[in-house]
Specification:
Blueprint (H helix, E strand, L loop, with lengths): L1 H21 L6 H13 L9 H43 L6 E5 L2 E4 L6 E6 L3 E9 L5 E10 L2 E6 L13 E10 L5 E2 L1 E15 L2 E6 L2 E4 L3 E4 L1
Antiparallel strand pairs: 1-9, 1-12, 2-7, 3-6, 3-9, 4-5, 4-7, 7-8, 9-10, 10-11
Helix pairs in contact: 1-2, 2-3
């Protein structure tokens, strides 16, 4: 009877310890080892753990330790690769100053007497499209109508005039393009920015290009002229 009471007490203690670990929903190698030791301490002396069971649990513990080590090594390797890639990108970015780049964006710089090109990508054939140019206040100053645009990159020359045929002052403008096919369905368009890189800034360790007065991420650059 006394042995039974001891076994009952030990079993409850082991069960409580196991329950607490399960609440965490995951076991690390330290918790696994604690659980194994508790199981050995509280086993029934009249019915001890079989050698095969003990060996199996040791094998599980060894596998868990190896997997933990592999996971740690992978994380360290990925972190090193990311730091190296970032360092290379930041070093390359310094060479962009003074060069013309094409990137995702919708800004265009107008120089008096110049005819800047407005570039954009069309995802599919567009039966008709409307291009709107706005000044720095957001006011639409010029609207251009287009038709029969094939998929791919498109370029439209802007004469620098407003809708009344008057020349606009030099500065930075924005443009947007809306297109649709013959069925009236919307065709996706992505505006592109082309300009000279004037400055390189580093934000949170990442290189940012200043083009036409706008900040452009290095990842958004499509072409370097």
């Amino acid at each position: 009877m006394q042995t039974s009471a001891i076994n009952s007490t030990n079993t409850n203690a082991s069960g409580t310890q196991t329950e607490g670990m399960l609440k965490n929903r995951s076991l690390g190698k330290d918790e696994f080892l604690q659980l194994l030791v508790a199981q050995l301490k509280n086993q029934d002396p009249f019915n001890p753990m079989q050698g095969t069971d003990f060996a199996a649990q040791l094998a599980q513990f060894s596998s868990l330790e190896q997997l933990t080590s592999i996971d740690s090594n992978l994380k360290d390797g990925l972190s090193t690769d990311m730091m190296l890639t970032q360092a290379v990108n930041n070093t390359m970015a310094a060479n962009f100053i003074g060069k013309e780049v094409t990137s995702l964006g919708n800004t265009v710089t107008l120089i008096s007497g110049d005819h800047p090109a407005l570039n954009f990508l069309v995802s599919d054939y567009a039966d008709k499209a409307t291009l709107k140019i706005s000044d720095e206040t957001g006011k639409v100053v010029r609207t251009l109508k287009m038709s029969g645009l094939s998929s791919g990159r498109q370029s439209v020359e802007w004469d620098g005039l407003d809708d009344n045929g008057q020349p606009l002052p030099g500065g930075n403008y924005t443009f947007s393009v809306e297109a649709e096919n013959a069925k009236g369905e919307t065709v996706k368009v992505q505006e592109l920015t082309k300009g000279i890189v004037s400055t390189i800034r580093y934000v949170d360790g990442h290189a940012v290009l200043l083009v036409n007065g706008k900040e452009i991420s290095l990842a958004d650059v499509l072409e370097i002229g």
